[in-house]
Specification:
Protein name: Phosphotransferase
Number of helices: 16
Structural class: alpha+beta
Number of strands: 11
CATH superfamily of one domain: Phosphorylase Kinase, domain 1
GO molecular function, one term: transferase activity
CATH topology of one domain: Phosphorylase Kinase, domain 1
Radius of gyration: 23 Å
Strand order of the largest sheet: 1-2-3-5-4
Shape: globular
Order of helices and strands: HHHHHHHHEEEHEEEEHHHEEEEHHHH
InterPro entries: ACAD10_11_N, AGP_Transferase, Aminoglycoside_PTrfase, Kinase-like_dom_sf
Low-confidence stretches: 1-10, 14-24
Pfam family, one: APH
Strand content: 5-15%
CATH class of one domain: Alpha Beta
Largest sheet: 5 strands, antiparallel
CATH architecture of one domain: 2-Layer Sandwich
Mean pLDDT: 88
Distance between the termini: 26 Å
Oligomer: single chain
Length: 465
C-alpha cells in the first residue's frame, strides 16, 4: 500500500477543480491538504522503522516468560501485535490493567506513526468544504437521460398518457455508491419535482431494495421522509427508486453543525427519532442491512468490517490496518450482552441527512444503513453534533417525552467506537480505490482525509488516548 501511495504522489488529487486558484481558495487549500496527507502516508513505513525500538519494548513486556524474543523488524512486530490483539482486548475487558495499558501504548504508537497531523489537515480541509466529501458532487447527470427517465416514469404511471415530459434533469449531491438526480415531471394537471436515487454504474445493488422498503415503511408510519413513488430494477440501467422532492436543507455535515441550529430544530430531530424508535417492528420491513440485536449479530457486523479492511489493504501491516485491527478487537471483546428492545435503526441519523425547513424537520434522508438494532446506535451517532451546540440534554428530554425507549448505559459507551470504525472502514475502502485509480476528487477527499480522521476518533474513544 505504501508503494501505491508513492506511485501516485505526483498526481494532482484535485485536478479539474481549479476554479478557486485565482484567489488561492478554496481548491488550492484542498489540494495542499490532500498532497500533505499523501506525503505523510507515503512515509508511514519510515516512521515505523524509526520508532520500532519503542514498540519492541511494549511487545517484549507482553511476551515476558515466553520462548523467544520479539522481532526487531517493525513489520514483524506489527504482525505479532495483530495476532495478539484479540486476546489482549479480551483480557483488558475482563479487568487486566496491564493488558489495557499495553493496548493503549500500542494504539498511541500507531497514532504517532500512521496518523500524524490528522487534526491540522482536517481543519484545513474542512475550511475548503471537504467536510461534505461523503455527499459527493453535484452536476450533470452521470448515467440517465431525460428520455430514458421519461419512459421509466411513464412505465410506473397508472395513466402513462398524462405524463408529458421530463425536464430540468440534474445531479444532486449524494453518496459514493448511489447517484442522486432531480427532475421535473410535467403532466396533464401540472408538474411534480422528483428525486431519483440510483445505484452508480459498476457498484453493487444489494441494498437498494431494502432501502426503498424501509423508506416506505417509515413513510406509512408517519416518520417525516420523502414520499416513495416507485422502485425499478432495470429501466435506468441499474436499480433506482423515486421519491417526491422535499423542501429544506441540512444544517450540518458528517462532522457536526455547519449552520446555527436552535432548540426547536434540535427538539424536532429528537421527536422524529423517538417516533422511529417507537414503531412496531414485530413484522419488520426488509432492511438494507442485517440485524444488530444479538451478540452474534454484532460480532458478524464487526467481522464484515474487518473483511473489508483486509480486502482493501491486502496486508496486515499496510497503513492504518494494525490500528483498525486493535479497534476491531476492542469492539469484539466489549460486545454488549443480552438483546434488549429491538427498534428500527436509521444507522446514519446525523445533521447531514436531516432536512430542515426553518425549525421544522421536513425529511430524514438516506436509509441505506437501516436495520433492526438498538436505540443507542442512533442516539450516539447524533450525540456529538448536538453536544457541539450545547443542547444534548434538550435533545434527550424531547426524545423521552416523545416516547423514545429507555437508554442503555453500556450501549451508549460502546456504539461511538462502532460508528467511527464503520465510517473509517468505508472511507478506507474508498482510499484503496483512489490509490488504484486516482481519478475522482470525492474519492481523494473521503479516502485520504476522512479515513484517518474517523480511525483516530475511534482509537481515542476506545483506548482513552
Amino acid at each position: 500500500m505504501v508503494e501505491q501511495v508513492r506511485g501516485v504522489r505526483g498526481t494532482d488529487p484535485a485536478a479539474g477543480h481549479r476554479s478557486g486558484d485565482r484567489d488561492g481558495t478554496p481548491e488550492r487549500g484542498l489540494r495542499r491538504a490532500l498532497r500533505r496527507r499523501m506525503d505523510l502516508d507515503a512515509a508511514i513505513a519510515d516512521r515505523r522503522r524509526a520508532a520500532a525500538r519503542e514498540l519492541r519494548t511494549i511487545v517484549g513486556d507482553l511476551t515476558r516468560g515466553t520462548s523467544g524474543r520479539p522481532p526487531a523488524d517493525s513489520g514483524e512486530l506489527l504482525r505479532l501485535v495483530v495476532e495478539m490483539a484479540g486476546e489482549l482486548a479480551m483480557r483488558a475487558h475482563e479487568g487486566d490493567r496491564e493488558c489495557a495499558e499495553s493496548m493503549r501504548a500500542i494504539a498511541r504508537w500507531l497514532v504517532s506513526t500512521d496518523l500524524p497531523e490528522v487534526e491540522a489537515i482536517a481543519s484545513r480541509s474542512t475550511e475548503t468544504g471537504a467536510g461534505n466529501a461523503a455527499e459527493g458532487p453535484a452536476g450533470p447527470p452521470a448515467s440517465v437521460t431525460a428520455s430514458g427517465l421519461l419512459a421509466c416514469v411513464r412505465g410506473h404511471s397508472a395513466d402513462p398518457d398524462e405524463i408529458i415530459a421530463v425536464g430540468d434533469l440534474r445531479r444532486l449531491a449524494g453518496g459514493f455508491s448511489k447517484e442522486m438526480l432531480a427532475a421535473t415531471v410535467e403532466h396533464a394537471r401540472g408538474s411534480q419535482e422528483i428525486v431519483i436515487r440510483k445505484v452508480a454504474p459498476g457498484r453493487t445493488a444489494g441494498t437498494l431494495g431494502g432501502e426503498y422498503a424501509t423508506l416506505r415503511f417509515a413513510w406509512e408510519h408517519g416518520v417525516p421522509v420523502p414520499q416513495p413513488l416507485w422502485l425499478d430494477e432495470t429501466a435506468l440501467g441499474t436499480p433506482a427508486f423515486a421519491t417526491t422532492m422535499v423542501a429544506g436543507r441540512p444544517l450540518g455535515d458528517v462532522w457536526g453543525p455547519t449552520e446555527r441550529i436552535g432548540r426547536p430544530a434540535v427538539r424536532a430531530a429528537a421527536t422524529s427519532l423517538a417516533r422511529l424508535h417507537s414503531l412496531d417492528v414485530a413484522v419488520p420491513p426488509r432492511t438494507p442491512l442485517p440485524p444488530m440485536l444479538t451478540p452474534g449479530q454484532i460480532l458478524a457486523a464487526i467481522d464484515e468490517r474487518r473483511s473489508v479492511i483486509d480486502a482493501a489493504a491486502g496486508e496486515v501491516t499496510a497503513p492504518f490496518v494494525p490500528l483498525f485491527a486493535l479497534v476491531c478487537a476492542w469492539l469484539r471483546a466489549g460486545v454488549p450482552r443480552g438483546v434488549g428492545r429491538p427498534v428500527l435503526v436509521h444507522g446514519d441519523y446525523g445533521l447531514h441527512n436531516l432536512l430542515f425547513d426553518g425549525d421544522r424537520l421536513s425529511a430524514v434522508l438516506d436509509w441505506e444503513r437501516a436495520h433492526l438494532g438498538h436505540a443507542a446506535e442512533d442516539l450516539t451517532y447524533m450525540q456529538p453534533s448536538i453536544e457541539a451546540v450545547g443542547l444534548w440534554e434538550d435533545f434527550l428530554d424531547a426524545y423521552r417525552g416523545a416516547g423514545g425507549p429507555a437508554l442503555d448505559a453500556e450501549r451508549l459507551s460502546y456504539y461511538p467506537v462502532w460508528h467511527d470504525l464503520w465510517r473509517g472502514v468505508s472511507s478506507y475502502r474508498i482510499r484503496a480505490r483512489y490509490l488504484a485509480a486516482p481519478e475522482r476528487i470525492t474519492d481523494a477527499m473521503a479516502g485520504l482525509l476522512m479515513a484517518p480522521r474517523f480511525l483516530l476518533n475511534a482509537a481515542r474513544i476506545a483506548f482513552a488516548l
